[in-house]
Amino acid sequence: MKLKLHVWRQNGPNDKGRLETYEAPDVSPDQSFLEMLDDVNQALAKEGRDIIAFDHDCREGICGMCSQVINGKAHGGQERTTVCQLHMREFNDGDEIYIEPWKAKAFPIIKDLAVDRTGLEKIIQAGGYTSCHTGGVADGNALPIGKEAADYAMDAAECIGCGACVASCPNSSAMLFTSAKVAQLAVLPQGKVEAHRRVMAMTEAAKESDFGNCTNHYECQAACPKGIDVKFIAKLNREYLKALIK
Amino acid sequence: MQLTQSSVGRKIIMAVTGIVLVAFVCVHLLGNTSIFVGADAINAYAQKLHSLGPLVWVFRLVMLAAFVIHIFFGIQLTIENKAATPEANVQVKRQKTGFAAETMVISGLVLLAFVIYHLLHFTVRVTNPEIYVPMGDQGMVDVYYMVVMGFQAVLPVAVYVVAMGFLFLHVSHGFQSFFQTLGLSNDKSLPITMNISKLIAVVLLLGYISIPVLIVAGLVKI
Ligand code: HEM
Ligand code: FES
Hints:
The structure holds two protein chains of two kinds. Chain A is 37% helix and 11% strand. Chain A has helices at residues 33-46, 118-127, 147-157, 164-168, 175-186, 189-192, 195-208, 219-223, 231-245; strands spanning 3-9, 18-24, 69-70, 73-74, 96-100, 109-111, 114-115. Chain B is mainly α. In chain B, strands 1-2 form a two-stranded antiparallel ribbon. At the A-B interface, helix 7, helix 8 and helix 9 of A face helix 2, helix 4 and helix 8 of B. Residues 56-59, 61-66, 82-84 of chain A line the site of FE2/S2 (inorganic) cluster (FES).
């Protein structure tokens, strides 16, 4: 099939940025979205033109590198799907597709569709860990954890840190990302010890990295390729209150 | 101070002051519906409030504080949130949120303007001198007469109806937001509180507009 692409081109954080139009003349429905872009880039390179920069790594939906707003929706809007797992069969011959980067003050544009997500790292560095001596791998079940807590923590731990929650949020808030880590560690014995310090430090780091404040739009959950639930944000708020009155 | 400067802390303040305001509008509506019972009922209700004396002022100050704090942080958080998204994408398609949630600061500011007008209309009593008729010797007015005469013209009725539309919008998002912000919701309760939120908003809307509308329609009269 043949597609018309409107792609955001921007040479760096200080460049103005603009949509430019490209043809994708021979797209297979079996291609992934990124493979389709690879073909476009190959054609651009052959003509000696500047190729479209975009982030990607695993291309199997687990690393969280791919990050594009497609037709106004982070990762294209297909339920629980990253851009790399989005396939061209979801589109029709003759479609016009808008491809834009994550846009937030906290995510300066490096080039075109690639943005700097250091802000998310700062949040994790502030408390997304447990301070304990590492050694050999612990024996299985040496530390008993109930099934419910284990499942809950695993659901939260599914976050791949792509930043779609920020990109889809009208406030560019990183609350879903932050809450996934806070909630995951808060229900585990290893994480409970530092729960109070963690929730304070991580929410503060989010503020310092220029992410906005959550006003419960719940867009993040809809956009999340891993289906992280906003119940974790409620959990973060609960943890915050506990830390505040302790 | 964590509570007044942090992201979550200020949200908690918004939620608590917001729910105080919601509680007020609910109780206020209940009191106002006594107008449908008759002139004596609403005047007796007004008399009762009046007789509380200094307590009324304590109550008013608490409401004023909640209101001012709510507005202050509402505006401050909104400014920060706008600054966090300096430039939006060319294409933006929302999947879950709606008009009410995206216009909270607007509906809030319209409510502020309305509250000022409403206080001048019926509490400070300066907008329509012809409707304030003294009753008894404690500086009270005939409240039934004031309200019925106050809604004879279409303009004030329209103002109240439109303002209540904004109250509907604000509460339909705000009520469920309270539970999420205080960490009182989870994946099972959230869809329920979202529906309750809309229900309360509809009840407030219909309840409040019924008073001016039934009066201007001539169904409640002197
Ligand atoms: C008068 C000016 C007002 C302004 C400027 C204002 C502004 C705001 C803003 C910006 C929010 C945050 C948006 C969000 O969290 O989604 C909010 C939340 C809220 N407002 Fe208001 N508001 C006003 C009046 C009211 C009134 C009269 C009520 C009650 C009927 C009310 C009840 C609430 C509630 C319950 C919330 C949710 C709190 C939360 O985030 O959990 N507000 N308001
Ligand atoms: S490239 Fe790894 S998740 Fe898409």
